[in-house]
């Protein structure tokens, strides 16, 4: 008989949450085709297929096939949008509860949560535990713990995506735990922290698992990010300090962070995977049921130009910063292998396009989304150090971490006379904060960070008030209708309000 050390710590803190939250919503719950947890999880293949299914909804139109990058990026000031109906409502802060993007984003997150809950249900966990007692079971306790860790990571990730876009949302922890009222943001964050904490204890490291899977490093990175966003700097530092096995790519390989060839590199903690081996019939279904679907990121940003870099974004780069030429193609810039092509499509994004490899402007979208990079972790460490009052130039000071990013390209370092002259003295907390804002904007542009950064810093009310000079909708320099008391969140989908008995129009986010 196998020794059973399976770490059933999955409900820590969650039962407490459930005891005072009555939450729900109407969700398009995924059909599991008759799979019953009582008779599943008999083999390693079944265990791995259940955990593999957790990632499928990230690849749908509601999330990273389209709306999960469109929405936060078009809200921000680093982008200008075309008049396409998929972009204009969010760019002009004219979201409504009946828009496709409002409901698709919501439902795909909850469908992903439903799959995680299938693995984390009491019946499934008991079945896994029982199967580990059988000598013929071909998976180990470590395999089981990793699968459970993946379910916690993905559930935490889907709730993170939800709370950032909608604020407080219904909590679904168990499979039948639907039809609930909205929980507060604090309760949602408590759940997320619990899930990422457990995941960080159970998941394999990057070298122990397959590409595309959640890892211990990814869980610690997300845990630290959530603690940072909650301004719990001590706990964020503790999480970040445990991350090992990742590094910043050298300058010569920097574009590997954004192309096909460099997927799953040493700087990547977590990616949303895409492949050319998709079923064409799945491309627009958004079901998350077929082979990994393509993303339209390259077409939207580099081919069709539906989201382009703002003049503000272009001007944020220092004149000698080589990251600009790797992130953005201005009109007339050369690109591609050996820079043999010339861009005549106006200012477009270079990141995550196929243009590093060829001349195609509307290619198959197979480039993975880099959801969490080590560069982001290093910059969050700088922000954490600042929050803890350490702005020093040696580790673990904030300036030290900022200069780690700049050292990659041998750029002038913060604390030098040259950077002081450029307007970035770092002798004070305010000066370091300005450097953090600048460095995150140029390093992480077009990676879905800017809007949430501005909200976290309370800068959204001042930075999102004017249409950019690169605006193509005829509003250049005019007031942009951003209201921080309304537009920090999207509206709750009307379908949820109509079908959930515990949510009504009075529960809608303010201003919608």
Characterize the structure shown.
The chain is mainly α and 512 residues long. The protein has 3 domains: 14-246 and 489-507, Serine Threonine Protein Phosphatase 5, Tetratricopeptide repeat, CATH 1.25.40.390; 311-355, no CATH class; 371-483, Alpha Horseshoe (Serine Threonine Protein Phosphatase 5, Tetratricopeptide repeat). Helices cover 41% and strands 5% of the residues. It contains 21 helices and 8 strands. A two-stranded antiparallel ribbon has the order 1-3. Strands 2-8 form a two-stranded antiparallel ribbon. Strands 4-7 form a two-stranded antiparallel ribbon. Strand 5 and strand 6 form a beta hairpin. Helix 9 packs antiparallel against helix 10 and helix 9 packs parallel to helix 14. The longest helix is centred in the N-terminal third of the chain and has 26 residues, at 141-166. It is globular. The relative contact order is 0.14. Residues 1-33 have low confidence and may be disordered.
């Amino acid at each position: 008989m196998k020794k059973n050390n399976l770490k059933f710590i999955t409900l820590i803190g969650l039962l407490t949450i459930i005891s005072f939250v009555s939450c729900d919503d109407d969700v398009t719950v995924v059909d599991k085709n008759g799979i019953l947890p009582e008779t599943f999880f008999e083999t390693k293949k079944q265990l791995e297929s259940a955990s593999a299914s957790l990632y499928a909804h990230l690849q749908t139109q509601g999330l990273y096939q389209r709306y999960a990058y469109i929405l936060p990026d078009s809200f921000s000031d680093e982008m200008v949008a075309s008049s396409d109906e998929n972009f204009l409502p969010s760019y002009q802060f004219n979201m409504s509860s009946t828009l496709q993007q409002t409901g698709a984003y919501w439902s795909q997150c909850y469908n992903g949560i439903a799959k995680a809950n299938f693995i984390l249900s009491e019946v499934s966990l008991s079945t896994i535990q029982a199967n580990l007692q059988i000598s013929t079971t071909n998976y180990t306790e470590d395999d089981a713990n990793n699968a459970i860790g993946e379910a916690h990571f993905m559930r935490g990730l889907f709730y993170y995506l939800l709370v950032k876009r909608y604020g407080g949302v219904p909590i679904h922890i168990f499979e039948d735990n639907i039809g609930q009222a909205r929980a507060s943001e604090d309760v949602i964050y408590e759940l997320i922290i619990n899930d990422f904490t457990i995941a960080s204890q159970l998941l394999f490291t990057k070298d122990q698992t397959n590409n595309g899977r959640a890892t211990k490093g990814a869980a610690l990175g997300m845990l630290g990010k959530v603690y940072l966003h909650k301004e719990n700097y001590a706990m964020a530092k503790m999480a970040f300090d445990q991350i090992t096995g990742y590094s910043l790519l050298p300058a010569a390989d920097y574009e590997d962070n954004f192309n096909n060839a460099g997927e799953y590199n040493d700087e990547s903690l977590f990616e949303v995977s895409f492949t050319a081996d998709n079923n064409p019939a799945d491309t627009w279904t958004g079901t998350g049921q077929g082979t990994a679907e393509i993303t339209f990121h390259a077409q939207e940003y580099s081919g069709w130009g539906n989201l382009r870099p703002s003049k503000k974004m272009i001007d944020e780069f220092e004149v000698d910063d080589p990251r600009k030429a790797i992130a953005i193609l201005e009109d007339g810039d050369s690109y591609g292998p050996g820079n043999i092509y010339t861009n005549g499509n106006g200012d477009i994004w270079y990141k995550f396009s196929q243009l590093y490899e060829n001349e195609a402007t509307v290619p198959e979208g197979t480039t993975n989304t880099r959801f969490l990079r080590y560069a982001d972790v290093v910059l969050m460490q700088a922000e954490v150090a600042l929050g803890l009052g350490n702005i020093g130039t040696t580790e673990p000071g904030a300036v030290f971490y900022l200069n780690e990013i700049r050292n990659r390209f041998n750029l002038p370092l913060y604390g030098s006379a040259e950077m002081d002259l450029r307007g970035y003295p770092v002798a004070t907390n305010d000066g370091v904060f300005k450097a953090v804002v600048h460095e995150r904007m140029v390093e992480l542009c077009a990676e879905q960070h800017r809007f949430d950064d501005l909200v976290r810093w309370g800068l959204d009310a001042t930075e999102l008030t004017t249409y950019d000079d690169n605006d193509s909708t005829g509003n250049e320099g005019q007031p942009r209708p951003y209201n921080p008391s309304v537009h920090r969140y999207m509206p709750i989908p009307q379908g949820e309000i109509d079908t959930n008995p515990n949510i009504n129009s009075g529960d809608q986010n303010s201003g919608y």
